[in-house]
Each structure stands twice: as C-alpha cells, then as structure tokens.
Amino acid sequence: MSLSTTILWAIGATFAANFIIGLVFQWLEAQPLHFLVAAVALIISFLGGLYLRNLKKIGLASLPRSLLAGLSLGLATLVAIGASGQLGGILFGTQTRSVMLMQGYMSLVGVLIAFGIPFAVGVYTSLANVPFLFLGLPLTLYAIWIIGPMITTGYIAFTNWDGVQALNEAPFIGWRNFERLFADRNFNIAFWNNVRWLAFFILIPTSMGLGLAMIFNGKFLGARFFKVAFYSPLVIAPVVVGLVFEAMYRPQDGLINSLLRILLGPEAPLPGWLADPNLVIWCIIIAAAWRQVGYVMILYLAGLKSLDTSLVEAAIVDGANPWQRFWHVIFPLLGPVTVVVAVISVIDSLRAFDLVAIMTRGGPANASEVLANFMYMQAFNNYRYGYSAAIALVLLGLMLFFIVPYLLHVRRTELEY
C-alpha cells in the first residue's frame, strides 16, 4: 500500500466517520467532542498501524510520512466537523453546536490527543519494528474511560468541589479532605466494617468452597445437580440477592423470624435483624457470602481437576490417611488457586456496595456503612465530591496494598512458553 493510497483512504475514512457522527449528534442536539476526538485518534492509530506494517523498510525515514498522514487526518476531521455543522444547519436549523465543537476540538487537549499520542506511538513503532499501533483502539478507549477519570478523581480529592460549580472554579484545599476523613467517625465505622467483611470472606466462603469442591470432586449420583445448585446464586444479580435476604430478615413476616416463632413460641422476643446495630453488618455479610461460596467452589474444582493424581496415589501407597493427603499433598498443590481466591475475596470485600445500598443504605445509625456506600452517599446525597474522591483514593490504596504483592508474585512464578 503506497503512501498516497494510505493517506487517501485515511482521509476518506476519517471524513466519513466524523461526518456521520456530527450529523447524528446534530440531530440529537448533543455536543460530542469526546466522541469526535476518540474517533479520529482510533482511526489514526489503526490506519497508521496498517501503513507502518506494510512498509518494507521501517526506520526513521518513515516518521515524516507518518506525521504527514496524521496531520492529513486531523485536517480532514476539522473539515468534516465544519461540513457536518453546515449540513446540520441546513437540515436542522442550527449551527451553534458545530461551531462549539470545532472550537473545542482545536483546543490544546484535542490536538494532543488527536496528533500527539498517535504520532508518539508511531515513533516507537518505527524504531522498535513492531506493529504497536494496532493497540490504538483499546489504548485510546482505556485512556479516555479509565486513566482520564482516575487522574481527574485524584485532582478532585484535593478540592472542595460540590459537583455543581465548574471543576476549574472549585477551591483547592490540599490535604484537608484527608484530615477530615480520618477524623470522621462514620468513615471509621465504614473502614472497620470493610475489615470485618474482608476477614469473614477470606475465612468462611473460602473454607466452605474448598470443602464443597473436595466433596464434588468425586463421582456420585446427583453431583452435577448439586454443583449447579451451589453455583446458581452467583448467577443471580446482587440486587435480587439483597431484596430476597431483606425479605427474609423482616421482623414480623420474614422467613427467619417466622421459623423462630414456630420453634420458640409466639411470645418469644425475636431480633430485628437489619434494625439491630450489632447484627446488621453480619446479616449483610452472610448474604454476600451465600453468593460467594459457589464461585470459590468452582475455582477450587478447576484446581483439583488439574492436579497430578500420581502424587495423591503415591501418598495413598505410603499409607497417608485422607486428612494427611489433603493437608500435605492436595492443599499445597492448590496454592496458586488459593492465592487467586484470596485476592478475589479481598477485592470483593473492599468494593462491597450493592447489598448495603439495597438492604440498609448504611443504616441504622451508619452501623452497616462500608467505604463504597459511604463514598456514594457523600457524592450524590451530600454533594461533597471532593470528600468522596478522597474516600475513593483511600479505597484504591487499600486494594493496591493487596493487589500489588499478588501481581509481583504472579510475575515471579509465571511460566513463559
């Protein structure tokens, strides 16, 4: 594919994509600046990768041609935006939004995203002799939807933004949000509830899932049915699980108290499960663990199926009883699976939100509050977005405390084929 052909195809594809997007959003009366920037960056990346991949000799000589192709795509985008605005004005009677789009796209951020990133990747591709630009699509989406919001959240955490005023007008207050956070009684309650959740998840669902996996690893009548039965709670949406357990915990007509009333008599004092500050967090954790056990069971079953049976058979020949075979042979061999289960349990316990939001919304008196729900309430109920962003950073730090060692462990132990 020649340079001229590549540029013509690139200009045509960029023009068509932005023209269609511009018309659609003119009709919707929207202002899709980020969509336009994303579209041109993706097209530059992908077509740039096609072009560099077909070069017979990749080196510094290809860089000017890559830059020329990128600039041509950018100019085609600007023309496409203007043309879509003109045609949109004819069809829909408005040109204001297209003018705003064109002005915004020509800003420094738009130019850096549209030209800087693809060209920098093109430089790396030419020097390293690899088709790295084909990663343009996932990398661009990841940068727009993941990296960008993360950086923005980090900035918001050091401001007193209320979510109403413009972000650039929010007063910068430094570490004040974090100082207020660690002195906040409700934050301390949420933090220790997450610690309780974490300890319970690592001990109970992990032990029960491993026990069930050991039972169902053998062949017996109905084993497949029981596997499906224990795994099925994971298929149910957490919202549905919360509603079901909330109905079970009702003090008057709930399933649990109805059974207790039959066993203990109609006059026996019965607990209000979700109304008792000492019981409420454990009630929610049990609902979450009920859903988690089947997932852990499947992970351990997969690990058991991959074990070297000759080691177990050798232990039997040596006279080891079932407990000795499990503790000294099977469980050590399941070490990688146990690490994965532990990390997943940590992440699930720290990001716990849905069950709390559905069943109690953090009550009564913040007794069931967890960090994710506390962050949500501060942002969307109290309009303290800066404070909420500080909570998000603390939650991220807690997750990294467990995830980074796991990633380092995987890097040290993984095999290369």
Topology:
Blueprint: H1 3-27, H2 33-53, H3 62-92, H4 96-105, H5 108-128, H6 136-156, H7 176-182, H8 185-216, H9 223-235, H10 238-248, H11 255-264, H12 280-305, H13 309-317, H14 322-333, H15 335-350, H16 354-359, H17 371-380, H18 385-413
Helix pairs in contact: 1-2, 1-3, 2-3, 2-5, 2-6, 3-4, 3-5, 6-18, 8-12, 8-15, 9-12, 10-12, 12-15, 13-14, 15-18, 17-18
In terms of quaternary structure, the protein is single chain
Number of helices: 18
Q: Provide the structure class.
A: mainly alpha
**Name of the level-1 CATH class of the largest domain:** Mainly Alpha
Looking at the structure, what is the overall shape? globular
Q: How many discrete domains?
A: 2
Order of helices and strands: HHHHHHHHHHHHHHHHHH
Strand element count = 0
Largest sheet: none
Q: Mind telling me which CATH architecture of the largest domain this is?
A: Orthogonal Bundle
Give the uncertain stretches in residue-range form. 56-60, 94-109
State the distance separating the first and last CA atoms.
Answer: 34 Å
Kindly provide the radius of gyration, computed on alpha-carbon positions and rounded to a whole number of angstroms.
Answer: 29 Å
Q: What fraction strand? A: under 5%
Question: Residue share in helices?
Answer: over 70%
CATH topology of the largest domain: MetI-like fold
CATH homologous superfamily of the largest domain?
MetI-like
Mean pLDDT: 77
Structure description:
The protein is an all-alpha fold. The chain has helices at 3-27, 33-53, 62-92, 96-105, 108-128, 136-156, 176-182, 185-216, 223-235, 238-248, 255-264, 280-305, 309-317, 322-333, 335-350, 354-359, 371-380, 385-413.
